[in-house]
Amino acid sequence: MKNKKVLLLFFLFFIGIIGYNFFQSIYTKPIYTIEFFKNDTIKSVEYSENQVSESFGFGVYRNYNPPVGMNLTQLLKENESFEGYIRITNAIKRENSYLVFALVDYRMVPIFINGTKNQTHLINLDPMEDRFYSFKIDNLSNGYHDLILGVFLNPYEHSLDKKYRLDTDFSLMGSTRLNIVVENGSIPEPEFRKPEIFCESSYVLEGLLVSKEPCSSKAWPTENVTRKEALDYFINIGNSEQRNQRTFAVIQFLDYTQIPLIHNTSEYVYFGYLDKGKKGSISASTIIPDNTGIHELIVIWISDPYKRVEISPGIRNKNIEGRIEPSIRVGLNVIEK
Is the pLDDT of residue 24 over 50? Predict the structure, then answer.
């Protein structure tokens, strides 16, 4: 009997240890650290790692402490800079880098981040780090402007792995679009064009796909290329059956610098439209860089350019999609010929 009691006590003790460890494994709470860059205060929030899904976030704020959001329509005086704070949240369990950029009227412009002015700014964040940075954009002309602030996640990941490349489609980019009015001015009316090539009705596409051939459904993740060669390809755009006429802007980047849509031209932005249910292809090209290695080609399409993103301060315009989406990051592998 005594032996049975000892065994029972040992069994209960063993179960207790297992239960305690199981409880701890579920409710262990690592620290999520928010660091505000302008003072020495560190605010920490505890969370359960097992209950957090990984993601990253990007936003534009009027103030950082306490965080105050920014209306997407901003009225400025003549010669006034547009200023505020961007917030990048690396809610991922590893270090990541983010490349900050700005577009004014769909052209890349220099931006100040924490007082330093550059075309782009590389920011490195620790696992689960959330940080604010001041920004400023100057030299805005009088009138109405579309402005996009954005980040590319892990811009210098140059893997040629096919799965990685396919996973970059409509991914690894965050952005916010605003309307900026300096003094006054009417909304610009660019010339929207139909794509030069229309696809068959059987061609299925909603949004954007970059390919080697027009109206192709085949993804284009990588390409072996030679230095200084001209590379031709196509930007395919589709409009669903559920939407009426869609207007859009298309821009492209090589190694995160905006380039013309056709090399040796000055056309950096294509403004187009598609009627309901239509799909089309736009010719594009670039000159391959002189240096060997892997280079990144990205196309971005923006729906409803120069449409108001708010119908009044703080009230979103529900009549526009407001989509800003990147293509697959095409890995151009420059080899010696």
Answer: no
Let me know: does 328 contact 297? Beta carbons within 8 Å.
Answer: no
264: left (phi over 0), alpha (psi -120 to 50) or beta: left
Ranges 7-16, 178-187, 189-198: which has the least confidence: 7-16
CA 215/CA 53 separation, integer angstroms: 36
The Cα–Cα gap between 158 and 255 comes to 11
Residue 235: Cβ within 10 Å count: 23
**CA 146 – CA 317 distance, rounded (Å):** 15
In this structure, the strands spanning 246-254 and 270-274 are: antiparallel
Answer whether CATH 3.30.365.10 is correct for domain 197-335.
no
Residue 70 CA, chain-centre distance (Å), reads 19
Beta carbons within 10 angstroms of residue 253's beta carbon: 21
Neighbouring-strand partners of residue 209: 236
Which residues, in sequence order, are CB contacts of 204 under 8 Å at separation 6+? 217, 238
**Range in 20-34, 239-253, 256-270 with the lowest mean pLDDT:** 20-34
Question: How far apart are the C-alpha atoms of 314 and 93, rounded to whole Å?
Answer: 33
Q: Please give the distance of CA 209 from its chain centroid, rounded to a whole number.
A: 16
Q: Are 165 and 222 in contact (CB under 8 A)?
A: yes
Taking 50 as the threshold, does the pLDDT of residue 27 lie above it? no
Q: Provide the H-helix boundaries in 77-208.
A: 162-167
* Chain region(s) in the chain for CATH 2.60.40.10: 33-182, 197-335
